[in-house]
Each structure stands twice: as C-alpha cells, then as structure tokens.
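REVIEWER CHECKLIST
Item 1: Sequence provided? yes
Item 2: Single chain? yes
Item 3: Sequence as submitted:
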Amino acid sequence: MKVFYLVLFLLLITGSVFAQSSPTPNYWTPYGDTSLVYVTLNGGDSLWFRHNGAQWTFLNVVYAPLASPIFTGTVTIPTPFTLGAVSVTTTGTELNYVSGVTSAIQTQLNAKGNVSNVGTPVDNQVGVWKTVGTIEGSANLTFDGNDLAVGTNITLGGTVDGVDLATLNTTVGNIVISDSSITLLNATAWRLFYSNATTTEIQELSLGAIGTYLKSNGAAADPTFSVPAAEDVSLSDTGSFFEGTDVEYALQETGRLMTGITDDVALKNLVVTKDVVAGVWTVYVVQPDGENLEFNIDKVRLCSDNDSMTVDATAFAGTDAIPKTVYVYVENVGGTPTLTASNTSPEGVLEHIDVARVKAGAVSTSSLNPYGGFNTAMTEYEIIAKTYHKFFSLGSSYQAGMAVTAIATDVTIATGSMGVLFDDIASTEEVVSTDNLFHVLSTGNFETKNDFSFTHYSDGGVIGANKFYNVILGVLYNWVF
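Item 4: Structure as written out by the authors:
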C-alpha cells in the first residue's frame, strides 16, 4: 500500500506532462541491484520509476502514439528524426526547396528532355545541342549582354526585346547594314563591288578614267572599265538602211548624211531683228528658246556660248542718193561662229550662213532708210517643209519642147517637159479641137470649149462685132483620177 500511495502522489504532481509531445521512449534493462517499475495509464502512456533500495526516483514518461493529433504554435522536430522506419537527415532549408511542387519532380524532369551530359561552361557562350543528349557551349554563338554574335559574319547589337530587327545593325564581313545606311568597314574610297566565282568575298573595282564606262565581259568574267568603241554597240538594221552592219561605219554614215543635209545652215531656230540707237545700226540674231546658238559651216559644228549675236552694220550703209547693198551672214572665224556685215557678197567666196541682205541708205540718229531688203536666216528648222511649200506655190515651170502650131480655127501644142515641185513631168500633145480648153470668166466661173468662140474679155466686157482679142494658151499637168 505504501508503494501505491507513492505512485498516486506522483501522478497528481506530474499530471501536466501528459500534454507534452511524446519523447523518444526508454527501454527497460537491468541495472545493478536496482529495480525498475512502470505504471500504465489510460491511453497507453507509461510512467517509469527506479528504486535503489532507499527511495524511488521518477525516470520518464512514455507517451502512446496519438491518432491524428492537432499541433498548434511552433513544432520543433529534431534532426535527424525517424519517419516510419527511415531516418530522415534532410534539413528544414532543404525541405523548403520543394515548396510549390504539385506533382512528382522526377516525372517533370523526364518530360523536359533527355539531357545526359552538359559541357564545361564558358563565359558568353550560348549552349547548343552537340550530340544526342549533350548540350555544350559554342564559340560561334555568343552573347555578352549587349551583342548576339553568330560566328564572325553577323552581329546583332543593342536591345533586341521589343525592337524591330530592321533597326539593328548587321555586320557581314566588312559591311555593316543598318536601317538607314550601309557602312564599309575596310573599303577603299571610290570603288564598285561585285562577286565572282572564286570566292564569297565581295570584290572591289576601281572607278575607271573619265569617259570610260562599266563593261560586262560575260557572266563568267570580271567587269572592266573601257573606252566606248563602236563594236560595243549592237546594231539592229531590219530595214537595211545602212550599207553594212559595222556600227562605227553606220554611225559615220548617218553623221555624214545629217552633216551634208544641214551644211551651211543654223542647227537651231533663230530670229533676226535690227534697230538704230544713237546713230548705230545693229543687226541681232537671237535663239527664241534661250538655247545657245549652233551652226554647221562647211560640215563643221560650231557652238556659241550665248543665245544671241550682234553686228554693227553702220559703216556699210550708203547714202540716200547712193544706197549700198549690205550682206549679213554667219562665218567661221577661227572656230568661232561670228555674225558679219559686209558690202561684198560671200557667195562663192567663203562658206557661210545667210542672215539678211539690205539696200541701205543713210543712217540717222534713230533710223535707217532702207530701199529694200529681207532677212531669212538659213536654219534646219522645217527646212524641207518650207522648201516644198515654196516650190508648190511657184507652180510648174517650162523645161523643153511644147512647140505651138496655130491656124485660124485650131491650135496644137507638141510634146515637151515641165518641172512640178521636185519632179520633171513629160507632157503629151494637146489639140484644142479634140482635147478642149477651159478659161475662167471674170465672174470666176470656168468655161470649157473646143474652139475660140469667146464672148467676153477678161474684165467682163462683151466682145462685139469686128473686135479683136488675144488668147494665151498653156498646158497644165493633169493628175488623172
């Protein structure tokens, strides 16, 4: 009974220990001449005591496992600890590394790819796949925080994220291409660039001398700068206009034809004027479009530096009683076209371009007394059309033949020839009685007859009895429709 009360007393004074966490249990083993006893409480907890022959000493409390315990506050677990039958040596810091993991870590790693080997890291090198399962840095692909370089050919500089690649610089060999310019890093000034079949490098070609051009020597040869030559120009002559297919000869032929046609004329249109100021009579030649005057004198092209020329013709004028003829023309004076006035006609004496001819009387303070004259500068402008219309207005001209045989009642005009425009026309024999004639009345009406029974004169007057009249006959070329 003594022992019982002692145990009960200890239970009363140590009851607060049941709320503590369960410590590691002690296991009973014999120890000297002492004896160990324990008391099992409700719930499975145990109280252990030791008696040394004189007194009892409280040793420990062994707690029974709690089913689904709820802990509050900070719970400290010693390291290492046993979880089931496995000793756990992981620290709390290491356990925190798996915070946020929602599924098996190994499964997730396996799904990320099969990387079995990683090469030795090198500063700025970007990792690339070398072989199956191996990632290793490449010296040909680097990034230093600012520039991404691919080998030695392409460099992308600046911030790439959010920036259009067109604004980034691209370096290809010695060429830097940006959004606004192309810069040559090691190029020599005044060169052209091309590629050839022997290398991938851009080739440089020095600019040629003045007057040369860039000549292609075919798809498999380097270009060159060459002096223009006739054989470098292809000639297409489908109309057989030229005598040969040689370009140089054809150009010479064309130039020769044009030079011949325009010999001794002004090559640009011009206007001739005159005035008298302070007793000086001046003749002017002016190009109306403001272009420099050009002339072809004796098949030599002469150019003036201005659009006008003048000549003082005062000294060549005569008097009102004895006027003088003044010839105004353009001549070649030492390679320079010169407007000249003279009292000597240049015709048959020197090559020239006629400008004006004036029968000039006295020159007063403000005027010239001309007795006749004209200005009609010889120019290439519409020269063919003007010549054609001039001949057209002159009509036909007699050439040869056309002998006349007349009797009282009939007239015969024999065969002959006439000039019409630029052609010589052969005429046939015409007989009034058989081929008819026509005349125009004073009223403007035409009348056809085969005899000479006219009733009116050309002024409309009536031809009465015993009146005489003259008849002038001619032959007109008739374009037969």
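Item 5: Key structural point noted by reviewer: Residues 1-34 have pLDDT under 50 and may be disordered.
Item 6: Recommendation: ____
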